[in-house]
Structure formats: structure tokens, C-alpha cells
Amino acid sequence: MLWFKNTLILAVSTVAICLVVSVPASYVFSRKRFRGRKPILKILVLLYSFPSVLSMFAIYRLLSPMGLVDSKLGLILIYTGTMAEFGLLNMKGYFDTIPLEIEEAAAIDGANNVQIVTRIVLPLAKPSILVTAVQILIYVWNEYLFATTFMTGAENYTLAAGLYSLQATEISGSWPIFAAASLVVSLPILIVFFSIQKHMTSGLTAGGVKG
């Protein structure tokens, strides 16, 4: 349950920060035309295509002087840096599918920019936002590489790292405990997934990256 608590803190914090950053950023990249927009998007796609393991040493060199190695804040920053980019690219594609005429009609009726975004655009983009949030949650919930590299000690383990430690070897592994822990890990994600299943198709298929 301690590992469950650690993972829950990491997951909720990462999802919240990623959405706060990526929702407005994706809307701006979708609706605004500014200098450097397309090159920035191409750079983001290029960076996201690199395997995360290639950045391990660089991340360690960045976090170590700040004392963020072996801390939850350090892991949250790593996860946010990875998944906020994914959220931006995924939701930008969905915002592109929302007709601009809807916003223009609302503006003619007297709605200001904040009202247009909060009362019209965000409700229409709900499927994409929910799917993005769940995908970020699943990533953090199952992430193993960074959790074992930047966190030491059983008290700091996440669920993924803890599960591995329970069945590290066939001799020392406790399979009944491992089976019970696997259920604890799987059930929350299954519940969340099935609760938003009706939004999955539209949220994923309309979330492609567009120019």
C-alpha cells in the first residue's frame, strides 16, 4: 500500500500538471498562427520520437545538482516533461477538428475569449482531454525505468518497481504476494478505463497531429 500511495501521488500530480500545461498550449497551436509555429511542432515530434533511455544520463546530470534525485518531485518533473509534450500533440489534433465557425458564432453572440474556451471549446474537447489524461495516468502507473533509476529504497518504490522486486528471482520471489499486488495495481486502471470507454474512440481517432 505504500507503493500504491507513492504511485498515486506521482500519477495524480503528473496528470494535473500535464493537463494544465498541454490543454492551453494545444489550443494555441491549433488556433493561432505565429512565427515558428510549424518548426516548433516538428521539433516536438522529433524529440518525442527518441527513446527515453537515451536521455537518462542527461536527466541525471540536470537533477543531481538540484538534489532532485531520489525524490518524488524529480520523478514528477521527468514524467511531466515527457507526457506534457504527448498531451499537446494529441489534443492539438482534436482542437483542429472543432469548427472555427462555432467560436465565431459565440463571439458574435457576445461571448469573450475566456467564455468561448471554457463554455464551448473545452466541453467539445472533453473526449480528447479524458483520453489524454488516462494515457498519462497509465504511463506513470506502469513506468519502470525512471522509477528504478532515480528512486532507491523499498519505501520509495512505485508499484511497477515494487512488483518487480516481489518476483525478482524464482527462489526469493513470493508468488502469492505478487499475485495479490498485481490485482491492486491492475484494478484502479481497469476501473478508470472502463468508466471512460465511450470516449476512447473519438478521443484517439481525432487526436492525430495536423499541420
Structural features:
mainly alpha, 11 helices, disordered C terminus, 211 residues, MetI-like fold, 0% strand
Distance between the termini: 45 Å
For this structure, what is the CATH homologous superfamily?
A: MetI-like
CATH topology: MetI-like fold
Which stretches of 5+ consecutive residues score pLDDT under 50? 203-211
Q: Give Rg in angstroms.
A: 20 Å
Strand content: under 5%
* N-to-C order of helices and strands: HHHHHHHHHHH
Count of alpha and pi helical runs: 11
> Helix- and strand-based class?
mainly alpha
Name of the level-1 CATH class: Mainly Alpha
Write down the overall mean pLDDT. 83
SSE map:
Layout (H helix, E strand, L loop, with lengths): L1 H30 L5 H13 L6 H8 L8 H26 L2 H9 L4 H12 L1 H17 L2 H6 L8 H8 L8 H21 L1 H9 L6
Helix pairs in contact: 1-4, 1-7, 2-4, 4-7, 5-6, 7-10, 7-11, 9-10
Describe the structure.
There is one protein chain. Helix 7 (about 125-140) packs antiparallel against helix 10 (about 175-195). The chain is mostly helical and about 210 residues long. Helices cover about 75% and strands about 0% of the residues. It has helices spanning about 1-30, 35-50, 55-65, 70-95, 100-110, 115-125, 125-140, 145-150, 160-165, 175-195, 195-205. The chain has a single domain, classed as MetI-like (MetI-like fold, Orthogonal Bundle), CATH 1.10.3720.
